[in-house]
Amino acid sequence: MTAADILPPEPLAQTLADAGVLPEGCAWTPLAGGRTNRLWLVSPPSGAAAVVKLYTRAAPNPLFPNDPAVELRLLRHLSGHGIAPHPLYFGETPAGICLVYAHLPGAPWVRGAYLAAATLKRLHAIAPPPGLRNAPDGSLALSEQTEAILARCKSHAARAAEALRPRQEVPALGRAALLHGDPVPANIVVDETGARLIDWQCPAIGDPCEDIALFLSPAMQLSYRGAALDAPERAAFLASYRDPEMIARYRRLAPWYHWRMLAYCLWRHESGDPDARAAADLEQAALTALSRA
After folding, report:
1. Distance (Å, rounded) from C-alpha 69 to C-alpha 200?
2. pTM for this structure?
């Protein structure tokens, strides 16, 4: 990590100080959770700490959008629900678009699948705000999204993945639940009081199975926790979500979600992420295991 990665851009701290958001003399500590944007834990000489998020203008991501305005809207919408941080500032700065929110004490999720399941179930019961994107609903929409991701790939592995398309069709649910859109371990903050969710730049409405699949994804668990969930952890999560009909639907859709994540990891690998190939292998193994079950 270079000094440019550790320290905030020079005008950013001054802009926030001039706006009365953060005092001068704060300690800025980079946070490692974000893959797309830059984040710092900012500790003032006195008072509560905050998180500063500086959005980057990265190339469009086929699975995880990066929308600053939507993140602000969600944080405001969820204020008072105890499931997301409170926003303190949002605006254009000389360094780029910036969001400041109250720091949530705790650590990224590592274990306790029941807690992650209960947090997502609670989120899915909250009425969504208007204007969110629609997540793919049902096998047809998932197939179209996966094919679009594979079309962006040029590798032989991507061409081979096209032949792994699942066969069991699953109809759309037609439900507009509020979805986090990226509930990976790094985005679930746990302390002694429970769990809350951060990084709301790609929320959606749609089938709760979308969030369930993203949390259970072997690739996402490997990328953010260092290892896929084992069978008891997966079983504990599914049981703790406490919705047998939704879990039965997820099981029918699981091959489609693994196929999509396989495509996404192959795209990430071709885009320069060397670790994405191991993640793709895990998704392909999960997909193959389900096809043999």
Report:
1. 10
2. 0.96
